[in-house]
Structure formats: C-alpha cells, structure tokens
Design a protein that fits this description.
Elements lengths: L2 H24 L1 E3 L7 E3 L1 H40 L9 H12 L1
Antiparallel strand pairs: 1-2
Helix pairs in contact: 1-2
Length: 103
C-alpha cells in the first residue's frame, strides 16, 4: 500500500472516531442556573457523527483512488519491461511515445 494512501486511511479512521467522540461529549448541554441538570440535544450528536462519517468516508475514497493510480503506474512500468528484449518497448511505452509525438 502506498504511504499516502495509508496516511489517508488513518486520517479517515481518526475523523470517524473524532466525530463520534465529539458528538457524545457535546450533546448534553447544562440548563441555565443548574450545574448538574443537563438537556440532551440529539441534533448536535447526529450532526457531529454525520460530519465525522462523511469526512472519514471521503478520506477512504481518496486513499482508494491513490491505491488504484499506484497500481496503474506499477502496471505500466511492468508492462514496459515485460518484453524480455530491452530494445523493444512495451505497449504502454509505445502509447505514451505516440501521444508525445502528436504534439
């Protein structure tokens, strides 16, 4: 796995965990004039959990995109060296050279 993708997976997991923790710690609001009597505001809870889930899932998605792009890059390099004859370029190298020659 790519280092950047791994870091994004960790950030995504921390975002989900952080959203849950912040949601549960901030959904109880003390009533005015009372110290120990609280009122539960579930909209704050669900908002924080939703924000954590959405941002975490987005980070997982970006990590998967980076993994796929890394696999494509490795496939191109393997394809160009697969021919056995070092003088003959692979299909990917020929395609890239064709695109560059058109300019």
């Amino acid at each position: 796995m790519n280092k950047v993708a791994l870091a994004l997976n960790v950030v995504g997991a921390l975002a989900i965990l952080g959203g849950i923790i912040v949601g549960f710690s901030s959904y109880q609001e003390p009533l005015p004039g009372y110290t120990y009597i609280t009122e539960e505001n579930y909209s704050v809870l669900f908002t924080w959990i939703g924000v954590g889930l959405i941002s975490g899932i987005m980070m997982f998605g970006f990590a998967e995109i980076i993994n796929l792009l890394d696999k494509i890059k490795m496939g191109i390099y393997k394809d160009s060296n697969k021919s056995g004859n070092e003088k003959e370029p692979g299909k990917a190298t020929k395609y890239i050279e064709e695109i560059l020659n058109k300019k």
